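User: Last request for today: this protein with zinc ion, please.
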Amino acid sequence: MADHPLVGGIELGGTKIVLAVGHRDGTIVARTAIPTEAPQQSLPQLIAFFAAWRGRLCGLGVAAFGPIVIDPAAAGYGHLLATNKPGWSGFDLVGSLARALGLPIRLVTDVGAAGIAEARLGALRGAPLGIYLTVGTGIGGAILIDGDIAPALLHPELGHLPLQRHPDDGFASTCRFHDCCAEGLAAGPAIQARFGSALNAFREGSDEHRLICDYLGQLCAHLTLALSPHRIVIGGGVAQAPGMIPETLRAMVRHLGGYATPHTPLDDYLRSPTFGQDAGIAGALLCAPG
Ligand SMILES: [Zn+2]
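Assistant: Here's the final one, the structure of the complex with zinc ion:
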């Protein structure tokens, strides 16, 4: 790999920032992680890491939490929008990095980067149109076309699609914007508030397990009807509970009601991700320009 150009990658997360130097095939040569503090504290540490590689990097891929303006043609490109993370609201992330490091930069969302990693090297490989979902503290999603993120005005917010409530479900949504969106009904905080513990505390086939799978299956049915993807990958902490994928698949088929059921082998239609915790930083390296 010595002849291959080196690139930098940054995964800006809510609690930590992962920094890496590697190749555009996602392989990592060096990496570290620093806690996410205000930009005034985090940025100098970040710059110090890449300073050791000065002159050897030809581009930087940045995978960032949102909300952030990712359209290079839009006003405010690379700026964080209002966020509850101290110091980051309005911060010019791309401009600050470009001035400090002097590298061409491509910015994607953290979910988008993970989706790119799955599409090019993981469980969405070979799917011309794929959907990556992550179900954890929220529900995020990315739409991948031929290994890259579908062009969009902002970025998709698949987790906020509305779902039909189960008739016996009177639980208050944890989303402060919507009373019946997928994230508000079925993400980690909703599960914790509703049941008093994480989903893996309940056995497969229990009412708790079936309800959450039913909601995620409904979400997959919506995505199937709207986009007709070749495959959907579901990652994140909630999706790791035993039996989630097959039960969600059964719920999806039920909600499609016999209409437009994908004619691909269903075991292949809904899958777990290949990448674990490294999806975001691998995706950042994969989309570095230069
Ligand atoms: Zn919502």
